[in-house]
Amino acid sequence: MNNVIGCAALVISLLLGQSANGASDIDAAALQALIDDGEAKQVVKRMESRLENWPETADAHYWLATGQLAQVDAASTFRKLGLARSGKKHLLAALELDPAHVEARTSLGQYFLQAPAIAGGSKKQARAQADALMELDKAAALRLKADIEWAEENVEAAIAYDRQALAAGTWVWAQQYTLVIQGVHNQLPVAEAVLDEAEQNVRRHTPEDVRALRLIDYQRGKFAAVSGQALEAGSAGLKRYLAYEPSPEDPESGWAEFRLAQVERRLGEAAAAEARLSRLEAGDVPEDLGFALQDERRWHYAD
């Protein structure tokens, strides 16, 4: 008898759209794959059908909202506002059912941050969602806070939050490298510390990832070249990068040579810098590097 009752309970659980342990049976990876493949409409249809025929769940509302919001950019002007408002409505419905739904709260925060005022956008509301996330997922909360600061063009505050988020959550190389690029590009006082953290994290988490270490070397050299800081470390990093075979998506060796010539000039190694620039100029270089070589000559080598 107990077995019969147990089987009945399992059937009822599945019919309600839940697994036996209460977790949603929605296949998030499959739904995300559909969205990534440009099939967001299919996600919307599936979740609308689910909500019509099954008891509502936070996950169903969340994925319906996600499918709708994924269509906004490509939608006609007349459809954009309707999709956006419906997406917001379903995110709010998800949180009504489950206030601890991290993905829905994160998406709602991003909605408030990115949507125009006519569609309910509000940085104040985005901050409120970030504050609410702090008790649920600190890393997600800090990433949202960083995005808010980026939107306000508060670069130093944004990078500070991104650094905290990286330390608070699961370490991901892509996030780490984005942080490195941002620090170097903006020539921030913390750029050198960001580079050091990146190298330490790679050596701690993926010490076999030579490519990641060489990309950090390149960015270290670029920072030295453009800022005039940490020149010896920048020179050493670029020399290691030049001994490495870059992937097609990595900075080209020609750019590393150019950055090393800039560092050598700053170090007072004029002959080495001149020889390196001359070798580059004698070869076939991409157009953007050609313009950079012309500017370097104009500003630092003209009589």
Explain this structure.
73% of the residues lie in helices and 0% in strands. The protein has helices at residues 2-15, 28-36, 40-53, 58-69, 77-97, 102-114, 123-133, 138-151, 155-168, 173-185, 191-205, 210-227, 231-242, 253-267, 270-282, 287-300. Helix 5 (77-97) packs antiparallel against helix 6 and helix 12 (210-227) crosses helix 13. The relative contact order is 0.04.
Shape: elongated
Portion of residues in helices?
over 70%
> What is the chain-wise order of helices and strands?
HHHHHHHHHHHHHHHH
Query: What share of the residues does DSSP label as strand, in percent?
Result: under 5%
Q: Enumerate how many helices there are, as a single number.
A: 16
Low-pLDDT parts are: 1-23
* Integer average pLDDT: 92
The N- to C-terminal Cα distance equals: 98 Å
Topology:
Elements: H1 2-15, H2 28-36, H3 40-53, H4 58-69, H5 77-97, H6 102-114, H7 123-133, H8 138-151, H9 155-168, H10 173-185, H11 191-205, H12 210-227, H13 231-242, H14 253-267, H15 270-282, H16 287-300
Helix pairs in contact: 2-3, 3-4, 4-5, 5-6, 6-7, 6-8, 7-8, 8-9, 9-10, 10-11, 10-12, 11-12, 12-13, 12-14, 13-14, 14-15
Please supply descriptive tags for the structure shown above.
disordered N terminus, 303 residues, 0% strand, mainly alpha, 16 helices
Structure in a nutshell:
The protein contains 16 helices and no strands. It has helices at 2-15, 28-36, 40-53, 58-69, 77-97, 102-114, 123-133, 138-151, 155-168, 173-185, 191-205, 210-227, 231-242, 253-267, 270-282, 287-300. It is 73% helix and 0% strand.
